[in-house]
Known about the structure:
Elements: H1 4-12, H2 18-24, H3 28-31, E1 33-36, E2 39-42, H4 50-62, H5 65-73, E3 100-101, E4 104-105, H6 107-126, E5 130-131, E6 134-135, E7 138-142, H7 149-157, E8 166-170, H8 175-182, E9 190-195, H9 202-217, H10 222-225, E10 226-230, H11 233-238, E11 246-248, H12 265-271, H13 273-292, H14 299-313, E12 318-324, H15 331-343, E13 361-363, H16 375-380, E14 387-392, H17 401-420, H18 424-433, H19 438-447, E15 456-461, H20 466-487, H21 498-511, H22 522-533
Parallel strand pairs: 7-8, 7-9, 9-10, 10-11, 12-13, 12-14, 14-15
Antiparallel strand pairs: 1-2, 2-15, 3-4, 5-6
Helix pairs in contact: 1-4, 6-12, 7-12, 7-15, 12-13, 13-20, 14-20, 15-20, 18-19
The protein binds 6-O-phosphono-beta-D-fructofuranose (F6P).
Amino acid sequence: MQLDGLTALASERKDQTILGLFDKDANRAGTYSASTGDLLFDYSKTQIDHDTRDALIALCDAAGLAERREAMFSGAKINETEGRAVLHTALRNLDGGPVEVDGLDVMPDVLDTLQRMRVFAEEVRGGAITGAGGSFSDVVNIGIGGSDLGPVMATHALSPYHDGPRLHYVSNVDGAHIADTLRQLDPTRTLVIVASKTFTTIETMTNARTARAWMMDGGGDPARQFAAVSSAVDKTESFGIPKDRVFGFADWVGGRYSVWGPVGLPVMIAVGSNAFDAFLRGGQAMDVHFRAANWVENMPVMLALVGIWHRQVLGHTSRAVLPYDQRLLRLPAYFQQLEMESNGKSVAMDGSSLTMPSGPVVWGEPGTNGQHAFYQLIHQGTDVVPCEFMVAAEGHEPELAHHQRLLLANCLAQSEALMRGRSLDEARQRMASAGLQGDELERQARHRVFAGNRPSTTLIYPKLTPFVLGQIIALYEHRVFVEGVLLGINSFDQWGVELGKELATSLGPIVDGEESAEGKDGSTAALVAYALRHRD
Ligand code: F6P
């Protein structure tokens, strides 16, 4: 990606304020926004103007984005370091035609598994499938990373639609997680879903074995009360999960892109197969938009270009995802994996070193909670943090419409405050009105200055329905894809997680006290020694 032209344009505009751009262009909000379906993405509160947007858009053609996009959708092996296609879009291809990998249409298998999931989910929900003690009161999903974050996020997001059994998620290998979860449950009426693409992940397999022992000790029946979701079907069988309880998916579904398929099973059990279908249709609607819209009207593309502008051109190291929607409380964590595991790379696809910054740190919390925690830094800290606000026009609780109005007002107020800021003169006037004078007025006023001109975007949607959630998740998936193509990296591998896993395995016997820490660095050896000394 050639950024020189953009960097030069940015430096020419260093004194241009966002407010100034609004003054110059009465239609700025309309010009610098994109919409699809009922979603509106407003990026007018950024420093992007006509020329910089043109230069950003030119990057798409220079990178061959249209060809790369079609390569992904048509099943080419674009995950080159693992030799795999990238086809999570096939999982939501409900109305589309065939999708081929190695000359074979994958859709019959995808649709067959989806149908098996629907039948299973409805039987669990309706009580046709039971545990040793009767109908299932609770479902525990055991998985981590992509086998956890997506379903957790979607379960929270869709809580108004949740009419199935209670759902619990166990991910951490910390025994506290599974102990605290299982303590409240009946082992004879709990369904355990073991979700792992590889079925080797140490956290998940450890938790799965602990859950199986708990169930057997408590009179439950693992043969009736366990299901598995995996690409490694042979391994699920050796774990003892009956074939008809195993929901497989292909290796062309990346973990962090897997919520659309069998990994979404707990969500389907919670909200029912119709609501889950609506979620898939929302994702598919975004796919159709992403493939058809020209660059400037293309929401994922413009979201990505705003990301490139802030990170690679202006050099801002992080971005905050700020949903003003309490039910999206796990969305920032979900996006953290989606974006950072995908685009946190320092080597380009061809093996050369990346010559520009990789993806940013992604973090966030729902508003308005964040306002009372970290927004101080966003408004007055020395680093600029581009903010991505999200908000619904309407909530799910008509009787609490006044809450929603306050929520929306707060969301809009934050983006306005970031842009507008407060000048030293304004701060002085306030201090003078409060009765201060002289040096003290000056000193106090300086603490009350807001630099302003801080960029943000806002995604606004009518209401958080399953369809809208599907649109939002697919929007961000495609954003990550576009950013990855422009960076020239492979967004679909994750070699960076391997080293820690290997070292943890080698440290196991040392931490158990069975092997000496000799050969380890001094810090690691000292920490092991401490742990061994303080263990009962
Ligand atoms: O360690 C990272 C990772 O491989 C993620 O990419 C993945 O989502 C997670 O672990 C869980 O993997 P699995 O589904 O194979 O258990």
